[in-house]
Amino acid sequence: MNRFLRLTALLLALLCLPVWAMAEEIAAPVETPVPENMEMEGMATGDGEEDTGEVLTGLAATIEGKQPLYTTRIKPFVSNGSAIRMRAEQSNKSDVVCVISAWQPITVYEVYPAYVLAEYNGHVGYIIRTWVDEEMVAVNPKTTPPYGVVPAQYVATLTQQVNIYTEPSKDSSINDIRPGAGSKIAILEFVDGFAKVLYWRSYGYIDAQYLTDLVVVSEEVTPMSEDTPIAAFCSFFEYNTGKEGNEGRCKNIVRTCESMTRVMQPGESLDFNNQVGPYKKNNGYFPAPVLIDGGSQLGYGGGTCQSSSTLYNTIRQLPGITILQRRPHGPGCARYLPMHQDAAVGTKELNLRFRNDCGYPIRIVSESTGEGTLCIQIFRVME
Question: Is the CB of residue 380 less than 8 Å from the CB of residue 362?
């Protein structure tokens, strides 16, 4: 019944087609060391001065009518940090609500791509996600997904190259990435005739008239058919920029899809470096920007971290998946995803490993045309 109501609402939305910062560290930040051989393009650079990319002016902080989701604590990542500023809006230029010392407990009411809405000693405001401990405790684990999990409601295919707007309106600003025809996207919801998606550290909106092959993501682990996904996630990447190594990075993302697409039996584990690597020319990889000895230069396999990170966000939507190993791209995380939601790969220490403890086989399908999007879906194999 729920699926029928959601489909009915979706059809009504499509009929209306004319028809939708980082908080600075008070103490001076220091440079965060980055492991060698880590993918370069798309990395978060700097720390306390980085712009989150959020454009949410006027979104005043309030918890009225909201329920607490998580408890956690302030955890500045700079070595000499001692306190952070809570802000009135999702901007490092907005008014300061209060100052919070390191390791103090906070209660989180909403999670956005770059900020959390939190309460501390009676004060309510926004805190950059980098400054909070991602090991959050759900107030009600039965109704609250793990921190950072963003389930998609639909998956669709683009019929042509499209704009991604910053608001559900064609009068709003347009983001740099314009995904090409045939690209698949994971949709959070429909707003005023626009498909809402996660776009780097913010949200983006795509005109729904350019969507086809719309599929509902099942809310249940037993879907209507094997062709109904039980989890989906997509990320966006730059292409045709003319930057050195960008074409190779796009080709590497497409290459990883071949290796990531597979069936996993109950109890089976996946080691990303072993499954998708080695990241070498003779394995179909191209030169793209990587970090070597603290500097940037072209190396084979750049871009694979976006693939592992997109996979990480997909598998986390299933409670039956056990994460065995995962590390972010340093405290700043990769800027092509919401904070705390990346998974670096490429070395023994940097790898994504997980096990299928769902009790049934799953099929992982990874797709990218190389033109701006990487979409991963998980299906239940019906026995």
Answer: yes
